[in-house]
Design brief:
The protein is mainly α. Helices cover 75% and strands 2% of the residues.
Length: 326
């Protein structure tokens, strides 16, 4: 297993280097950040001095090497737009994004698993037909349209829930959370369901397809022939083997929710990392944009690494293959 882990770690390092290089080179063509940082009255000397202070006149290779060296030390420079440390800005917005992503992931896992099992066990019922039709809506409609629709129904017409913001938060050791306040919980409902709807529909369809396939296997027929109850067959044997292929999707779900929360945070004015990224794109704030992409890449690399380890533990075929290579 040690060789397997080391191999995955080396692959992860190369992936992070490739992503950081791609992000750095890409945003060299995003525009001149000096224009967004100075006013119209700034002289050419002021612009040249600012460019020299930020190191923008250095060759691209030196800029990238300096960026990687500082990133290894946890130093990501200053935001061009806010003139504050980028890491501090990310950490300030991170609790809101994590809170939204974790809530959306829990909703998607619970609803997706329950609806997937229900539609598989009641494959030909009218309830399954309705659920499958609604799931098409969740997959087909864009996220911003779903969010606007929920705002119109529950905030504008019914006045049940707030339409924007995070509500009141509580500071716990430098980590802000809205889980401990009623306004924070109410503000979390609409954006979390908006973000979870696509993942719920996707996970439900995957679990349904996998469970229908498992229910056709010979060992399920043998379990019925032994006289086991349908409850034991469905939940102890079929569901257990159904969830093994879902590990990858469930693991990547959290990463994709954080990565694609940009639209939801913009619609609901959620003060998270995604909204910070949008503001940075508009202001050509290259350090913030680069760090955001590296953060998303690191998140996916870490999740993939954990999923690979779980597969190695769960699937004995991978262990046997690793021993043969060794």
């Amino acid at each position: 297993m040690l060789i397997f882990v080391l191999r995955r770690l080396i692959q992860s390092v190369f992936v992070m280097l490739a992503v950081s290089l791609l992000a750095f080179v890409l945003f060299q063509f995003a525009g001149d950040p000096i224009e967004a940082m100075v006013g119209q009255d700034a002289t050419m000397a002021d612009r040249a001095a600012l460019r020299d202070r930020l190191g923008l006149d250095d060759p691209v290779v030196f800029q990238f090497a300096r960026f990687i060296g500082n990133a290894v030390q946890g130093e990501f420079g200053l935001s061009y737009r806010l003139q504050q440390p980028v890491l501090g800005l990310i950490m300030q917005r991170l609790p809101a994004t994590v809170e939204l992503a974790v809530t959306s992931t829990i909703i998607a896992l619970v609803l997706g698993t329950a609806l997937g099992v229900l539609t598989a066990l009641k494959n030909r019922s009218w309830i399954t037909g309705i659920i499958m039709a609604v799931s098409l809506v969740g997959i087909s409609l864009p996220t911003f349209l779903i969010g606007i629709g929920l705002i119109y129904v529950f905030a504008v017409e019914l006045h049940w829930l707030p339409s924007f913001g995070r509500g009141q938060v509580v500071e716990l050791g430098g980590w802000s959370t809205g889980f401990l306040t009623s306004s924070g919980l109410r503000s979390l409902i609409l954006p979390s369901f908006t973000l979870a709807l696509f993942q719920t529909a996707l996970l439900m369809r995957l679990i349904r397809a996998e469970m229908l396939e498992v229910l056709r296997q010979d060992y399920i027929r043998f379990a019925r022939a032994r006289g086991l109850s349908e409850r034991v067959i469905n939940f102890r044997h079929a569901l257990k083997n159904t969830l093994v292929p879902v590990i990858t999707v469930a693991g990547l779900m959290l990463g994709s929710i954080i990565a694609f929360s940009v639209v939801t945070e913009s619609v609901f004015q959620w003060p998270g990392v995604g909204s910070l990224f949008i503001a940075s794109v508009q202001a050509v704030d290259v350090p913030v944009m680069s760090v955001y992409l590296m953060f998303i890449a690191l998140l996916f690399v870490t999740i993939n690494f954990v999923v690979d380890i779980l597969y190695f533990i769960v699937d004995p075929r991978l262990r046997a293959d690793s021993q043969k290579r060794a």
